[in-house]
Amino acid sequence: MIKMVCAFAIAGFMVSGCSSSKSTTSEEAQYQRVLAAAHGCAEEVKEKTIALVANGAPTRMRWTTANYVTQDATGKEQRRAVEYRTSTILDNGSEGSAWKKCMQDDDALVPELTFTR
Predict the structure, then answer these.
(1) Is residue 115 within 8 Å of residue 84, measured between CB atoms?
(2) What domain of life (predicted)?
(3) Residues contacting residue 57 through CB under 8 Å, at least 6 positions apart
(4) Is 15 exposed, middle or buried (0-12, 13-18, 19+ CB in 10 A)?
(5) pTM reported for the whole predicted model
(6) Where are the alpha helices (DSSP H) in the chain?
(7) Sign (positive or negative) of CA dihedral 103, 35, 33, 50
(8) What is the three-class DSSP state of 63?
(9) CB neighbours of 79 closer than 8 A, spacing ≥ 6?
């Protein structure tokens, strides 16, 4: 009998834990979309650069972050980071242009992104 009660209690906790979900705001969903695109674009720049370097091309690659800046309900600035990668061989003199082009192609180069040197 005790085993049965324990089994029902555990099953109840599992169901309630699995069914409760944190609601995602549209701002959070937007950030998550940009975050995923930024990671994908950083990886794309890295892979293309590695392929060119393997063929003997000289380059400098830098991995850093860009700021995703929004304001909360009180007007306080909120800063969150997303991946950002530069590669001199792909950027053709305009730092970060390959990553930014990828982000633009993914419709993720949003005004909330700010870049620092």
Answers:
(1) yes
(2) Bacteria
(3) 89
(4) exposed
(5) 0.75
(6) 2-19, 26-54, 88-91, 97-105
(7) positive
(8) strand
(9) 67, 68, 69
Rounded to whole angstroms, the Cα distance separating 63 from 15 reads 42
> Residue 82: is it exposed, middle or buried by C-beta count within 10 angstroms (0-12/13-18/19+)?
buried
Pairing of strands 77-87, 61-71: antiparallel
Whole-angstrom Cα distance, residue 86 to residue 23? 35
Judging by beta carbons within 10 Å of its beta carbon (0-12, 13-18, 19+), is residue 32 exposed, middle or buried? Answer: exposed
What end-to-end distance do the CA atoms of the chain give, in Å? 67
Contact 52/59 with Cβ under 8 angstroms?
Answer: yes
CA-to-CA distance for 82 and 35, rounded, in angstroms?
5
* Residue 106 half-sphere exposure toward CB, CA atoms < 13 A: 21
- In the block, residue with structure tokens 């305009």: 94
Mean pLDDT across 74-83:
93
What integer pLDDT is reported at residue 65 of this predicted model? 94
Rg of the chain over Cα atoms, rounded to whole angstroms, equals 22
User: According to the per-residue pLDDT averaged within each range, which of 2-6, 70-74, 82-86 is highest?
Assistant: 82-86
